[in-house]
Amino acid sequence: MKKLLISIAMTVLAVPVFAQNAAPARVAVIDVQRVLNTSVAGKVAQDRLKKLQDDKMARASKLQEDLKALDTEMNTKKLSLSEDKLAELQKQIADKQVALQRYGQDADKELGEARDKELLVLEGKIKPVIDQIGKEMGLAAIFNKFESGLVYASDAIDITDSVIKRFNEATQAAENTTPPAAQPAAKKQ
After folding, report:
1. Is 13 contained in some domain?
2. Does residue 54 lie in a domain region?
3. Counting beta carbons within 10 angstroms of the beta carbon of residue 7, is it exposed (0 to 12), middle (13 to 18) or buried (19 or more)?
């Protein structure tokens, strides 16, 4: 019985000692979408994707105009064309419609792949920045503010501005350290 009481007393006295040694679990959140929308590298990636999308839309408009021109031609010359010529125009219209539909599907796929590639590159560049900030601040975890299932997060634990600032600095530093021989080659394209 005496040993049991001594064991209990030792345990009770040891708990505060262990509690003092445990580091507090600090957490932070980051608004990844805001980082992508406001960082320099994020804006550059968005501009590239927008240009690709605009190019795809221009090509789709051209295909649509060609289809409309064939349709107009068929409707205006319907009565004067032979059945063979009319059938040929109808086949051309059907072929253009299929081509337009395929182009739309291919363009959507290509845009999705380009977006995924850009996000992967950005993730590779920003992850070290987030890790460094997390270590400097002694954080146990950093959550994606809107995609982690988080319902509420105080602005006091939001480190998005710090991440954007540091990411922009890292991006600028990387651009400044690019070898001079590589810069002219990139501009020639």
Report:
1. no
2. yes
3. exposed
The identity of residue 39, as a single letter, is S
- Per-residue pLDDT of 142-187, as tens digits, reads 988 888 777 777 888 889 999 999 999 988 887 777 665 544 444 4
- Say what the alpha-carbon torsion angle 84, 89, 95, 101 is, to the nearest 10 degrees: -150
> How far is Cα 66 from Cα 49, in angstroms, rounded to an integer?
26
Asked if residue 12 belongs to a domain, the reply is no
Q: Bigger pLDDT: 27 or 7?
A: 27
Domain count of the chain?
A: 1
Q: Is 139 helix (H, G, I), strand (E, B) or coil?
A: coil
Q: Is residue 15 part of a domain?
A: no
DSSP alpha helix (H) spans, the chain = 2-21, 32-38, 40-77, 83-136, 160-176, 182-188
Range of the domain at 130: 25-174
Q: CA 110 to CA 107: how far, in whole Å?
A: 5
CATH number, domain at 56? Answer: 3.30.910.20
Encode pLDDT of 66-121 as tens digits. 999 988 988 888 888 888 888 898 999 999 999 999 999 999 999 999 999 999 99
CA–CA dist 167, 45 (Å, integer): 14
